[in-house]
Write a structure and sequence with these properties.
This protein has one domain: Vaccinia Virus protein VP39 (Rossmann fold), CATH 3.40.50. It is an alpha/beta fold. Strands 3-2-1-4-5-7-6 form a 7-stranded mixed sheet. It is built from 4 helices and 7 strands; from the N terminus they run αβαβαββαβββ. Bound molecules: S-adenosylmethionine. The site of S-adenosylmethionine has 21 residues, from α2 and β2.
Amino acid sequence: MVDAVRKVNAKGEKALDMGTGTGIVARELAERFEEVWAVDVNPEVLRGTLEWPGNVNVLVSDLFENVKTNLKFDLITFNPPYLPEPYEEDRELNCGDGEVLEKFLAGAGGRLTENGKVLLLLSSLTPELGLEGWRKRGVVGLKLDFEELFVLELTRRGP
Ligand SMILES: C[S@@+](CC[C@H](N)C(=O)[O-])C[C@H]1O[C@@H](n2cnc3c(N)ncnc32)[C@H](O)[C@@H]1O
């Protein structure tokens, strides 16, 4: 995901890193955006992180639940739980039937600025996603032994 952020040369006013975990992606965004929101549902992973850059706002939230509705972002990144159950039991990586991803996409559309985009990391093992309403473009890919990881850039289709 960090490679993808660099490749699209993302920069702007506001960015949000969903499922920030240790904050590796949020740190890259902090160098490129004026304000960054680092969001995770698990307060433990946020507490484990050492120091956040001064322009990062850290928030515990189940997806967009606690993100103020008046905030709009130029970029939203998500390295989500993307593996179905047979591969992963841990909540950090287990996306069930893809409902976290579907819910994320349903919420993300309304949180973007006019030319805002989403960078979403997926795997060849991720259950198929409904991407109606989005234009997609592959940004980076990585072949591993048992799966292929790739980052999609998503922009909203017009009305
Ligand atoms: C694959 S890890 C990614 C961690 C980090 N962003 C990275 O790239 O290394 C997925 C993260 O998503 C978080 N997560 C899972 N479900 C979530 C939800 N409903 N809302 C927000 N974060 C969630 C997990 O706690 C975990 O930190």
